[in-house]
Every structure is written in structure tokens, then in C-alpha cells.
Amino acid sequence: MEDVKIIDLTPENIADYGVCGYKDVQKHIELRKKIEWFKEYYPRGLRIKIIFSQKGGYQGMLEYIPGEYAHRPVEANGYMFIHCVFVGFKNEFKGKGFASLLIDECIKEAKENKMSGVAVVTRKGSFMVGNDIFLKKGFQIIDSAEPDFDLLVLKFDKKAKDPKFKADMSETLKRYSEGLTIIRSAQCPYTEKNVNAILETAKQLNLKTNLINLKDAIETQKIPCPFGTFCLIYNGKIISHHPISNTRFENIMKKEMNK
Questions:
Q1: How far apart are CA 87 and CA 121, in angstroms?
Q2: What's this model's pTM, rounded to 2 decimal places?
């Protein structure tokens, strides 16, 4: 498409384009928190590139950051780490190779910065890209985590230490053995949505509830869920690895509480 271009978001222009479908800074607290987070990590190498069409507007994005600041429970120092990639809010922008172009931009920057490679977490389930596009680009699955997460890497330096998931996630999960724990980070704006409703439902169910707002990459890398920026835990069991609606939460809790 002739009118499509890749735009680099910066602290100066991010509010003009928005993120992940959120466009109104005044209306969306999700966007305001994301912008604050973006401004904090931008000087540390965080980058967001978007696909923008003059006719269709914002149609996709890729977000990546040096591995030491990755908002996933991984060890990926020395690698560029992709947080998320999405293309095609409108169908006519899907299947055009835009996601591949964005990934190529990340690979190029990682090479320019003489990094060991590029790493990414994918999954077969919801809210995260699958691994097909990365496998086609020569990435290899280097580690996996339950229930459906893969850690992939494209290595430039074959002698570099492989990235991996944090080994202590199952042990970390034991810290949340009582009641309901909601863990979220501003990295993903969708973690804001529905949480207030979930908290109200939990109150109605007389659940002991703990809301954890992750402050930084260090805290995020220590959580027991491979998704990293969101997790729902009930009595030591992960009941959702990604943001869900209040209705979905109610249905899950009915089943859990009747066991």
C-alpha cells in the first residue's frame, strides 16, 4: 500500500498516535499510564514502531527493549527483546507483510547495537503472537513454559549465552497461596481494563484480594506467569495468564470455588 509508512514513536509524538488502539489521552487512563511507562524506559532503549496509513490510520505496532529491561520473567541480557507485535486493526492491512517489516527493523537495530541477537516470547493461546512468523525468519525455540509459551531467539553471536525463562517461577507461585492475587504492569495497556470490575466482584465473593501494580522490569521478571505483565492467581494456581473480562472472571471463580 502506497500510503503506509513506519513511524518511530517518541516521548514527543506518542500522544499524537496512541498505542494499541487507545488514542484519546484525556479519555483513556490506559493510554496515560502507557505513555508514562514509555517515557521512563525510552532512554533505556525502549522503542515502539507503528504502521500508519494516511487513509486507515494506526494499523499495527512492534515494541522492543534491551533484554535486561524485558517485562517478561526471562533472562535475556545482551539481546534485544520483543514485547509485542500486532498488525491489522482493519482486515485490508492484514497479510501484507507489515509485521515482517517491523521485525526486520528490530533485527537491524539489534545488529547496529552489536547485541547478541533478538529474543521474543510467543504462545499458542490468547493475547500474544504465535511463533510462526519468527520461525520463518530463522528464530529457534530455545525454552518453553506452561501452558503454551515459547521463548525464541535469533542469535547473531553463536557463543553468547542463550536466553531462558526464569527457573524459579513455580517456587515464586507459592508466595501467592491464599486468596486472589491480581498482578499487572503499565507495559500492557489492556491490563487496566476490567480490573476495577474484577475487584468489585471479588469483594462480593468475599475473596481476600491483593492487587500488585508492578513498578519496573525487576519486579516484572520475578512474577510466576510467563506472560509477564498480567496474571490472576487464586490459592496458588494461575487462573488467567492474560487480561480477561469480568464476566470471564466470574465464570472461572464459580468453577474454582465449587471444587
A1: 17
A2: 0.93
